Each structure stands twice: as C-alpha cells, then as structure tokens.
Amino acid sequence: MKRVEVGEAWTGVADCRHCVIRDAVLFSGLTEEDFSHLHRPIDQITYRAGARIYDTGDQAATLFTIRSGLVKLTQYLPDGTARIVRLLRKTDLFGLEAMIDEEYPHTATALRDTEVCRLPVDVVRTLSHANSRLFNELMTRWHHAVGTADRWITEFSTGSARDRVVRLLLWLSEKEDDERCELFSREDLGALLGLTTETASRTMAELKRKGFISEPRPNQFLCDTPNLRRLVGM
Amino acid sequence: MKRVEVGEAWTGVADCRHCVIRDAVLFSGLTEEDFSHLHRPIDQITYRAGARIYDTGDQAATLFTIRSGLVKLTQYLPDGTARIVRLLRKTDLFGLEAMIDEEYPHTATALRDTEVCRLPVDVVRTLSHANSRLFNELMTRWHHAVGTADRWITEFSTGSARDRVVRLLLWLSEKEDDERCELFSREDLGALLGLTTETASRTMAELKRKGFISEPRPNQFLCDTPNLRRLVGM
DNA sequence: CGCCCATTTGATGTTCTTCAAAAGGTGTGG
DNA sequence: CCACACCTTTTGAAGAACATCAAATGGGCG
C-alpha cells in the first residue's frame, strides 16, 4: 500500500435537505423542523484510498455515512492477526458504536477514494429522542449490522477456501447493478475470508482457469453468477 | 440428542416489577407508570434441554430474555451446513430481530433447561417510544449483539483449531465466577468454531493431555486460564 | 530504465478433514 | 440387575486442503 501523506480532506458542509442520496441515509426521516435544530454543521470529508478513517481505541464521537467509495472495518487479535469484519459502501453507516461506547472497536480504512459525512454523535442522540423515524432508522441500521456480521460468520468463515471466495464474489455481485465486481487486494481478500494471501490468489486463479470469472481490468471481475451459485449450492 | 416430547412448558405470568434479575434485563428502566400500561402479560416459559425455541423463518413476534440456562443461535447455509453464531445466557436478550423483521433469521435451541420471558414485540415497540431509558437499553443490546458477532469472526473463526478452542474456553471462563466452565457437545463445539466434531474432540484431548484443562465431570471443565491465555498470546 | 510492491507460482510440510472403527455412557426392557 | 441398543466421544489411518517459505513475474511510477 502506498503511503498517503494527506489522507483526508474537508470537502464542505453537507446540505442534508438536498442530499442526492437522502432517501437512503440515516437522516431520511428528518423533518424541516428537525433540520432547523441542527445547529452544528455536518462535515463532508473525502478520504484517499488507503487512508485510515479511525483506529481501534480512538475516541468515538462521530458516526459516518458513506456517500461514495468503499470502507473496511478491521479487528485485531492480540497476536497481531487482522481480520476484516465488514465492508461498507454507498449509503452505509458506520461508527454506530459511538452511540454507546467511548472508543471505536474497529479500525476503519478507505479501500478506494471515499466521501463521507460525519455526524456528531450528540446530534444524532438528541435528534433520535425527538424523532421516532430516526430512532427506527437507527434500529434498522443496528439490525443490518448484526445481519451482515452473521453472514460473515456463516458465509465467509465456514467451509473450503473456494466456497468462501465464491460466496464473497456472489455477495459483491449482488450489490452491483451488472455482474461486474470490483475487488481489492489479495491480501484484503485473505484477511476478509480468514485465509492467507497465497491461498486467496491461488483460488482466484483456479476460478479464472475454469472460466467462472474473468478479469478484464486489474481487480475488476466479471462473474458467471449462475454457475458460481451452483458451485456452492445456492 | 434425545427426542423431547414436551419441549416447552408455560411457567406463569412474569412479575417484572419484582423480577430477581430486574437490574440486568431489558425492562430495568421502566417506571411504575410504564408497568401500568403493560396490559398484556409477560409469559414465562421453560424449555427442556434440546428443545427448539424458534426456527429460521418462523414468524417473529416476541423477544426473549433468558432467566436461566443456555441458548444457541444457529444459521444454515443452503448446502445444509450449520454454524452456531451466538451463545446466550442469563440476562441475555435474543430474538431482537423481531423489532425489524417479519421472520427470525436464526434457529434458537436450548442447550440446557432454560427459563425465558417472552416479550411481545409490539409491547416493546410501544414502550420504547415512550421511555427513553428502554430505548437506550435496546440500543445497548444491539450494540452488544454486534460486538459479540465480531468476536465470533475474529476469535472463533480465525487461526488454528487449537487457538479457536482456547479462545472459546477463555471466553466461557470469563463469564463464570470461578474457573469452571460448562461445555456442551463436541458437535456443537465444532459447529461453533467452524471445525469438524473429530477435530474438536482431538483438540480438547490434546489440551487435557498437556494439562491445560481437566474434566472433573463430563462436559465440565477446569481451565488453567493463565497458561491458556499465554498459549494464544492474550 | 530500474525500483518497489503486489501478485503469482512452486515445493514442502503441517493441519484439518474424511472415513472407519472402537470405546464409553445412558436409558430401556427383559 | 443385566443385557442390549443407541448415541456420543474417542482414536486411528490416509488423503486433501491449506500454510509456509522462497523465488519468479509483472505492473506502476519516479
């Protein structure tokens, strides 16, 4: 990974009322009146690919909404082993733990250039008491986080290396409109699936040889989803 | 597992106001007034060891608080593979998904005789809008579920079989007062750690041989926690 | 062009799974 | 109370899958 000197840049003050992804974000349920109580501005920030957004143990004071890009959450074992526990993209919310905890439990890193909105936790707390739609939205986000974590356990941490890779490819394709699927480094692929970089690489190579995937551009894949699905019995 | 004809038995109507574990449960923040609005009674139910509490896809209409016992949540892959994604005990809440979803995403099974309180989801929903302490308590529970799921990924799904078993033993001892640690079947141990029954059994045998654990009674273990901790670098 | 880093590939060893069989425990019925 | 059946656990042997170490390849960038 290349060193990035200036990892983040302040992009401006968000105009939540006219946000292009407003339907999909946390504040979708806010009323004009709610917004009028929003005295503290919502920052918009851009992180370069590879930039650290926050570190495990950092003081947790803001939630993040992704406007564009891709973010990984990594958790470390005492022996230094890293495991990627979540992958976040457009409209996803992360750092929710700030609502409860003093510190972030993960390390958040931008995998591509990533635009986020930073929501101060006390703003969200205050609004969530007043606005029950926001409260529901928050619950939905928590629910979603648990559901995703559980998929990580069953789909990405169970079975053979090939099965795990295939399930991940299918999961990534799900989220794309077409059957393309942007991937990241082999090292991250391994850290996500609990495999070594080499095994991740070999498995991808095997899938290519057998024609289940092709790689028109580096790290961009075309998946034969029907046949991949058949491979893992989905 | 022995067939259980009568898996569940209604034990009575809960008296939440005078609950012995009241400090620790979801309703700890409720006021006298809140309780007076609680027209629908809270059922108390006992499940026999091995009894199914709910099944993946069942209509989700109640949350459960554990008064005593042990419950596993299992998730299934399309090919039939089962993976235990959570272990719940006294004062834990499960079935939270009922707040959002129509169906339970897991199968919940009692591992020992287990007493639960059943909280109708609409009761919790109504109360949570009126009582902000309950709302906070709910958020805390969600937070806890995510945190536990993440530990499952990093600690129980990463590294060698021995490391996983050791981390689980340490986790179970954490929750006990002494260094005893009740365990369940080897099959469940495997399903929890993403290993086969045989590997789980062999790993336990090896730990016994080396003196890290002893088994005074079947499925009850004494752990040499300091040395176990050293084994996995904690 | 040459350097740096990520990826790929190879060879080897370990770990885990698989299949199979034996041992141990528990409950039932004779 | 013993014998038998059934189920779980343990153990063994063989093979497959994955990790590890090492080296080669290839792409991007100064």
From TrEMBL, chains A, B:
GO terms for cellular component: cytosol. One of its GO terms (molecular function) is DNA-binding transcription factor activity. SMART domains: cNMP (SM00100), HTH_CRP (SM00419). InterPro entries: cNMP-bd_dom, cNMP-bd_dom_sf, Env_Response_Regulators, HTH_CRP, RmlC-like_jellyroll, WH-like_DNA-bd_sf, WH_DNA-bd_sf. The keyword Transcription regulation applies. Residues 159-226 form the HTH crp-type domain. Keywords: DNA-binding, Transcription, Transcription regulation. Residues 26-122 form the Cyclic nucleotide-binding domain. It comes from the Bacteria. This is CRP-like cAMP-binding protein.
